[in-house]
Amino acid sequence: MIFERGDPRDPRATALLNASHALMQALFPPEDNFFLSIDALCVPGIHFFIARQGDGYLGCAALAERRDSVANRSAGNGADRAGAPEPESAAVDASDSAPDLAAPYGELKSMYVAETARGLGVAAGLLQALETTARSLNLKSLKLETGDSLTAAQRLYARHGFEICGPFGAYDDIPTSVFMSKNLA
Fold first, then answer.
1. Which of 15, 81, 100, 175 is most buried, judging by how many CB atoms fall within 10 Å of its CB?
2. How many C-beta neighbours within 10 Å does residue 124 have?
3. What's the Cα-to-Cα distance from 23 to each of 27, 135, 155, rounded to whole Å?
4. Interior CA angle at 110 toward 109 and 112, to 5°?
5. pLDDT digits 0-9 by tens, 61-88
6. Which residues contact 118 (CB under 8 A, 6 or more apart)?
């Protein structure tokens, strides 16, 4: 199994993302379902990974470079089910030194494993690739938002050192959201 950077526009990756979007639409009401578009996963500050075996894609995930700021928290919710604000407005800008900016962090986005590949270690491998990338970018923590009914995902994240936390970025505290974080410092 290989874990590497990928292109969300590759038809195999797009198929995984479309399956993820369909699952989220089936599980959550429209107002609680906020996934990023394929185009939004292709902007600077987003690091997209795939897991593959041969030519077959087994899973995908992305790391979004973020900073929490007072402006982000008051901007409202432009979040997706697996992440926070649209990346165009929230990617880390090294030249931005406004005093209300917190330490940079990485946000897990678009984590999905094909049903036929579940239980094979795909998610764990993708998490490791994201964490390695976050550390190489000197990000201080990883954060994520997941659905309250996605208990297997919550258990996976907990096994990998994530703990329950409060909302971050532009997220509102809604009943179907579970927020988790992991300190990398």
1. 81
2. 15
3. 6, 30, 18
4. 135
5. 999 999 865 444 433 333 444 433 333 3
6. none
